Amino acid sequence: MSKLQSDALREAISTIVANSKEKNRKFTETIELQIGLKNYDPQKDKRFSGSVKLPHIPRPKMKICMLGDAQHVEEAEKIGLDYMDVEALKKLNKNKKLVKKLAKKYHAFLASESESLESKVNETKAMVKFQLKKVLCMGVAVGNVAMEEKQIFQNVQMSVNFLVSLLKKNWQNVRCLYLKSTMGPSNRIF
């Protein structure tokens, strides 16, 4: 059972989208869900980690690099994906500086598999990860201002329901939920 009010959420989403249209930015703002937790001790209680695939891709411009053999490199080339073959990876092997530089350049890496590469890329772009570390707050990208409000709404609902299912006492562990765009003010939705 979701305690999230649909009306309040829809209102917050339309406010965010309207605010972003007022100021013309040179990039597409990401809409982020910020979560504050309560009655949770990261020292004692089990820290959780989980990924959920959202119905709509929140970050279409996410940078993904494909690591693979010749066949997958060709496939990556076809769909305009950055790639590295096995030989290039071997060169990086011992050089920590180059490895770090590579890791910072991309949001995600895919290793070659037998599955269709395009569907894997879309699946990776639609994934969001919830991970509780030492602090009781976290944020995840749930959409961007170029998306339809209905799509953002579905993404937010799915993210929140998944997060609540990870929590020990479900909604009793949620202190607050905010929705905000990259440069905009935050809107409380719970």
UniProtKB/TrEMBL annotation:
<dbReference type="InterPro" id="IPR002143">
    <property type="entry name" value="Ribosomal_uL1"/>
</dbReference>
<protein>
    <recommendedName>
        <fullName>Ribosomal protein</fullName>
    </recommendedName>
</protein>
<dbReference type="InterPro" id="IPR050257">
    <property type="entry name" value="eL8/uL1-like"/>
</dbReference>
<comment type="subunit">
    <text>Interacts with the GTPase NUG2.</text>
</comment>
<dbReference type="GO" id="GO:0003735">
    <property type="term" value="F:structural constituent of ribosome"/>
</dbReference>
<dbReference type="Pfam" id="PF00687">
    <property type="entry name" value="Ribosomal_L1"/>
</dbReference>
<keyword id="KW-0687">Ribonucleoprotein</keyword>
<keyword id="KW-0689">Ribosomal protein</keyword>
<dbReference type="GO" id="GO:0015934">
    <property type="term" value="C:large ribosomal subunit"/>
</dbReference>
<dbReference type="InterPro" id="IPR023674">
    <property type="entry name" value="Ribosomal_uL1-like"/>
</dbReference>
<dbReference type="GO" id="GO:0003723">
    <property type="term" value="F:RNA binding"/>
</dbReference>
<comment type="similarity">
    <text>Belongs to the universal ribosomal protein uL1 family.</text>
</comment>
<dbReference type="InterPro" id="IPR028364">
    <property type="entry name" value="Ribosomal_uL1/biogenesis"/>
</dbReference>
<dbReference type="GO" id="GO:0006412">
    <property type="term" value="P:translation"/>
</dbReference>
